Amino acid sequence: MGFEQLAELRDRLRSEKAQAKADSPKADSPKPAKRKPAPQAKAREQDPAVEAIWPLQKHFPLAFPVNPAPKVPLKEGIFKDAEQHLELLGITSEQLKLGISTWCRGNRYWASMVENAPRLDLNGQPAGVVTAGQALYAKQQASRQRGKSRKDRAKAKAAAPAPVAEAAVEQTAD
User: Model-level pTM?
Assistant: First the structure.
């Protein structure tokens, strides 16, 4: 089928669709079915910390960048500043506190906390710097988190039965 034939077919289908639309009354036309959210999206919607972070990312993208952009150190007292915008954000003070505390935990945030790095306010303007003590604390937290996740993986591995060991037990039982 050539391009001319495809164009002719497209035009014919468009005219048939327009004709069908004109012939049918709007009251009788079925409403298009709404798409159901993916199971992943539903799980994300249920996480209150994530629900609180989304409005922060939407209204203050320089202070709360979307992944994969690196996180930035936030101004000390950012909660007080953000609290003035609760109505704009459409969240409660408790949700805001949860969102900011969740944002400020984790390896991406701790990696941004290097000595003399600028701390940013809600508008992305510098508002102080990360001190040596704060950078050291962030490094310790990141190290502790890595150690914890290693221990968790080791526990999970130890809890899972090893199929090789079970086969050896069965052979000795015979």
Answer: 0.61
User: H/E/C letters for each residue in the chain?
Assistant: CCHHHHHHHHHHHHHHHHHHHHHCCCCCCCCCCCCCCCHHHHHHHHCHHHHHHHHHHHHCCCCCCCCCCCCCCECCCHHHHHHCCHHHHCCCHHHHHHHHHHHCCCHHHHHHCCCCCEEECCCCCEEEECCHHHHHHHHHHHHHHHHHHHHHHHHHHHHCCCHHHHHHHHHHHC
Contacts of 145 (CB under 8 A, 6+ apart): 106, 107, 110
pLDDT in tens, 132-172: 999 999 999 988 888 877 778 888 888 776 555 444 445 54
Domains of the chain: 46-152 (1.10.1710.10)
Closest CA to 139 of 120, 113, 166: 113
pLDDT digits (tens, 9 = 90+) for 16-71: 888 887 776 554 545 555 555 555 555 545 788 889 999 999 999 999 999 888 99
